[in-house]
Amino acid sequence: MRTHDAVIIGGGPAGLAAAVQLKKNGIDDILIIEREKHLGGILRQCIHDGFGLTRFGVTLSGPEYSQRFIDMANELGVSTVTNATVIDLNGDRVITAATQQGLLQVQGKAVILTMGCRERTRGALAIPGTRPAGVFNAGVTQSYVNLYNTMVGKEVLIMGSGDIGLIMARRLTLEGAKVKGVFEIMPYPSGLPRNIEQCLNDYDIPLYLSHSVVEIKGQERIEGVRVVQVDESFRPIEGTEKYFSCDTLVLSVGLIPENELSLAAGVELDWRTNGAVVDEFYQSNVPGIFAAGNVLHVHDLVDFVSKEAEAMAEGVAEYLKNGALPECGLEIKAGNDIGHLIPQRVSGKRDFKLSLRVRKPWGKCCLEVRQGETVLKSLKLAKAIPAEMIELVIPAEKMNSVEDLEVRVYEI
Amino acid sequence: MKSKTLTCIICPNGCTIDVKAHDNGDIEVSGNKCPRGKEYAVQELFDPRRTISSTVRIEGAMLPLCSVRLDRPVPKKEIFAVMEEINKVSIKAPSHIGDVVIENVCGLGANVIVTKNLDKI
C-alpha cells in the first residue's frame, strides 16, 4: 500500500494551511485528498469580503483568500488528488477513497482531518407544516446564487441569524429579491455584529429576535410561514402569531462538524463541539490522527481556521520527527457558562492556546483559567458574545502536570 | 451637533462606536479599539461608504459565473447603480484575480475587479 508522512482529508482553508505549514517544517511527503474538482473548500462560494484581516492584514474575498494558500501549496509542491471522496478511515490510519481513477488506498503516518462542517437542515429542526419546494439552507442558496447563476426566489424570509444567513440576506437583496425579515429564536443574534450592521441594517431588513417559525405553508412551492414570539423558555407567547407570505425560506440555523470518518476511525467526539476531543497538539485519542478547522469546532473567521491548522501542523511535524508526542493527561473542564473549548486535554508542561465560546452574552466579565487554587490566566473583557470565538494563550510557568484545569466566566 | 452610535464593520471585533461632530468642528469618537475604527466612524457620519461583492457571467469556464468586488468603497446610496453596471458585464475565460472588469464604475473612482481564477476549458 502507498504510504505518506501525512495525508490530509479535505483541501479547504484548514487542509491547505496545514499542508503549507508541514512543508515549511520539512515534512515533504504530503497528500491532500479533496472531494471537489478544485481546492479551496467553502471559500469558493464566499465571494463577500472581510477575509484575511488577521492573517494577511488586508480584506479579501473568500476566493482570493484561498488562492493565496493554493499558490503557496503549489509553490511548495504539495501533492493533491481532487474529485476524490474518502469513504473510509480506520484506526491504523488507512484511507480508502473513491477517485476517478478507481479506488485509492493510502496509509498516513499521520492523518489530518480537515473535512469542515455541514449545515443543519429543516429535518433536524422538525418545523411543522407541508414540505414544499423553496426551503433552502443558506450555504446551498449561496452556492446556487454565487456559483451556478440560479436565483432561488423573489420574496425571501430567513430563519436563524447565522452569519451565512445574514450574508445571503444582503446578497439576495443585491440580486433583486425582497428579503422581508430574519427570525431568530434566541434573544440575541447568532451572527457577528458587523454582519447585522452591513447585511441587515444597511438594507433595512428587519431582525425579529425571540421569534420562531412554527409552520411552513404551501403545496408545490412555499407560500408563507407562521411566526410566533417566544418567551425565555422558548414557549410561544399567545397573541403574537403573525403570517408572512414568501416564495423562499432560507435556513441559517447552525453548522455541524462532519465527523463520520472520524467516528469510523474510533476518534472520540465532544458532545459540545460535535468535533474530536483533542490535546494541545490537536491530536485525537487515536495516535497519529489530528484535526483542525471547522471539523474540530465551528469557527466564525477563516483567519482563525488557518492559524489553528498551522498550529496543528507544528504538532504533526513533531509527532513525525519523534514518533510520539508528550502525554496529555490533564483535562480542561468547561464551567457552566462556557459553550465549548478546545483543546480538551493538555500536558501541563507547555504553553498552549485555548479557544472557547461563551454560552450566552456577557457585559463586562472575566475569563479565568485555574488549576486547583492557582489562577493560570485571567482575561477581562468589555463584552463576550456566543458569536465570537475567544482565544487566549495559557502559559506553562505556573502549571503543574498533575491537576486538571478549569475555565469559567464571571461578571465584574 | 451631529452624532451617531454605530457598529464598526472594518474588522470582526465589531466595536460599538459613538461619534459626535460638534458645531465648532470638533469631532469626538469613543468605543473604538483602533484608529481604523475612528476613521470609519467619521466617514460613516458624513458620507457612509461600502465595498460590494457580486458576480459577472463568464464564457468558456467550468462555472457560469466569476466573482468580482469593488477595490474601494463607494457611497452607500450608489450600491444599486453599481450593481446594475456589474450585471451588464460578461467576460471570457480565463479570469485572473485583480483583472479590472469595469474601470471607474459609475464615475465613483472605484474599479470592479475579478476575485477568482478560472481556467479556460
Strand content of chain B is 25-35%
Number of helices, where a helix is a run of at least 4 consecutive DSSP H or I residues of chain B: 2
CATH topology of the largest domain in chain B: CPE0013-like fold
Low-pLDDT runs of chain A:
none
Mean pLDDT of chain B: 94
* Low-pLDDT residue spans of chain B: none
Question: What amount of the residues of chain A lies in strands?
Answer: 25-35%
- Structural class by secondary-structure content of chain A: alpha/beta
* CATH topology-level fold name of the largest domain in chain A: FAD/NAD(P)-binding domain
CATH homologous superfamily name of the largest domain in chain A? Answer: FAD/NAD(P)-binding domain
What general outline of chain A do the C-alpha atoms trace? Answer: globular
Give an overview in words.
Chain A has helices at 13-24, 62-75, 122-125, 138-147, 163-174, 193-200, 260-264, 302-322; strands at 2-9, 30-33, 49-51, 60-61, 79-81, 85-89, 94-99, 102-113, 117-119, 135-137, 155-159, 178-183, 207-208, 211-217, 224-229, 242-245, 248-251, 255-257, 289-291, 330-334, 338-342, 345-346, 352-358, 365-371, 374-381, 390-394, 405-411. Chain A is an alpha/beta fold and 412 residues long. In chain A, the strands form 7 sheets. In chain A, strands 1, 2, 5, 6, 7, 8 and 19 form a 7-stranded mixed sheet that branches. In chain A, strand 7 (94-99) and strand 8 (102-113) form a beta hairpin. The longest helix of chain A has 21 residues, at 302-322. The radius of gyration of chain A is 22 Å and the shape is globular. Chain A starts with a strand and ends with a strand. In chain A, 48% of the residues are buried. With 121 residues, chain B is of the alpha+beta class. Chain B has 2 domains: 2-46, no CATH class; 53-114, Roll (CPE0013-like fold). Helices cover 17% and strands 35% of the residues of chain B. Chain B is built from 2 helices and 10 strands; from the N terminus they run E-E-E-H-E-E-E-E-H-E-E-E. In chain B, the strands form 3 sheets. In chain B, strands 8-5-6-10-9 form a 5-stranded mixed sheet. In chain B, strands 1-2-3 form a 3-stranded antiparallel sheet, with helices on one face. In chain B, strand 1 and strand 2 form a beta hairpin. The radius of gyration of chain B is 18 Å and the shape is elongated. The interface between A and B is medium-sized, with 30 and 31 residues.
